[in-house]
Amino acid sequence: QKEGRSVRVVNARFIKPIDKKMMKDILGEGLPILTIEEAVLEGGFGSSILEFAQEQGVYHTPIDRMGIPD
Questions:
Q1: DSSP three-state, residue 23
Q2: 8, 19, 56, 65: most buried by Cβ count inside 10 Å?
Q3: Is 40 within 8 Å of 70 (Cβ atoms)?
Q4: Full-model pTM
């Protein structure tokens, strides 16, 4: 906050099912999204968020993923 930035942490306890209402709200804000994986990126939570954004026609929200490469 001292640097003029604010962050929101969303604890996605479960990969499936995705909370569609919450994700629509988050994607609608257009703020950057960073997903952090404890495991392999491919096929993980971040991938499902990217797929959901595409299905919703959301292309303006930057989405980045952190995790272990395959």
A1: helix
A2: 65
A3: yes
A4: 0.84
